[in-house]
Amino acid sequence: MNAEGRSRLDQMPEWTALGAHRARLGDPQLRDLFAQEPERAGRYTLRVGDLHIDYSKHLITDETLLLLRELAAATGVAELRDAMFRGEKINVTEGRSVLHTALRAPGSAVIEADGQNVVPAVHAVLTKMATFADRVRSGDWTGHTGRRIRTVVNIGIGGSDLGPAMAYEALRAHTHRDMQFRFVSNVDGADLHEALRDLDPAETLFVIASKTFTTIETITNATSARAWLLDGLGAGEDAVAQHFVAVSTNAEKVAEFGIDTANMFEFWDWVGGRYSYDSAIGLSLMIAIGPEHFREMLAGFHLVDEHFRTAPAEENVPLLLGLLGIWYGNFFDAQSHAVLPYSHYLSKFTAYLQQLDMESNGKSVDREGRPVQWQTGPVVWGTPGTNGQHAYYQLLHQGTKMIPADLIGFARPVEDLAPRLVAQHDLLMANLFAQGQALAFGKTPDEVRAEGVAEELVPHRTFRGNHPTTTILATELSPSVLGQLIALYEHKVFVQGAVWNIDSFDQWGVELGKLLARRVEPALTDGAEVPGLDASTAALVATYRELRGR
Ligand code: F6P
Fold first, then answer.
1. pLDDT in tens, 40-55
2. Signal peptide position in this chain (predicted)?
């Protein structure tokens, strides 16, 4: 650390050593690495909790791993990690602690933010959520007309939507199947319209989830939902209390909106939006899966937290995954990272990780405000693997880009599938293993020729291979395993932000668009003169008004 802050990453000897090592490796081939090391698959496998992680199909040697760990040590990853767990204000630009790990700590833990042990409050909210969730699930909590709640509509956006929506899909097999759960986020009225069009207001509960309770999309949708409810019931404001609950850090705004703060589930400014679905933001999820499963999920998170906090560097899986991302992003110029789950239930998993990773590490100044001179967070993308195979895997296999990928799969399908569908599981997983193999080892021109392929087609049918993947396997997608997976990625993102010396916990980059949208809206609705519109945008606004018939 120098007087102005941490030394520049690209001037650190550990960084330079990695660059030199990369140059020495030249064009490493997975085929060669595996041929040279018969033990590689076993040696490059780690386990954390229920997760089995194979990282043998990476363009690395023992020396690479050593140098990456030295980089982590030199950049103070462990020190920043410990500061995070201790509740220090490592979110420097907002002056906040970063304590999502406290949300899943056992009741006996002592974790302080601003000198206050936050654990009792965390558990008090969990208990309040559990009581409420049980009442809704059992039918004890009724709507204004005395009918039981059949549908829960979560209204939120970003971290207040993606987490509960993703986890609801992931754990669908564990949900209350006699109830429906819907997630509305988009300010496009079509989202709310489609969510509500076949619902009975008398049986509908809205969970308004917003950390700040000022987010325009959420407040607009919540206001429209309230009007829909009151119109549908033909009732007055007093009906709101039985049909609207809020999840927020902002009691004042919740009350201003007209929701009784007795029906508010609290969380705290030391929980980032994209790290919040294990807080009260998970209320609709808890109603869906029940408090018991929610607690199992928290235990899964906690298990990986403890691993990250205590495991030695050589066995520390989030550290390893974070460093591998740095290896490719900074030393191979990889621009993106694909997350490819082989599970229908993980259909929203990658979308969730997009916010987690890209909102955290999409930064171009360091923690001291200096422009960074190195690549930071990758573009994270992907959909469930089998569908991707028939869409974009072509580019993964034969395109020109390096795209490291994670393949995620489970040994068992969820328990309530019909026997015929259970049998399909081996085919699903055969695809995962086949893709890992094809991406890594490809097919050489000689192998293609040996199949009798005409010479002019050989280049087209050759697979270069050498595409790095991590394979993550678990027995089944249980609540605990979901918690373990999410915590794994949270800490991976943390590691990368720490090495790059960026603040992974702010998100100033979303502000400008919000501000301009507010400014431009009157131009669309009333044709108001909006100062400062650039010529292109002004022309687009004029065209919009014309097309809109205004
Ligand atoms: O605009 C980005 C963001 O602030 C995210 O970080 C957050 O998850 C989302 O908006 C929703 O914010 P809120 O929960 O305050 O409505």
1. 999 999 999 999 999 9
2. none
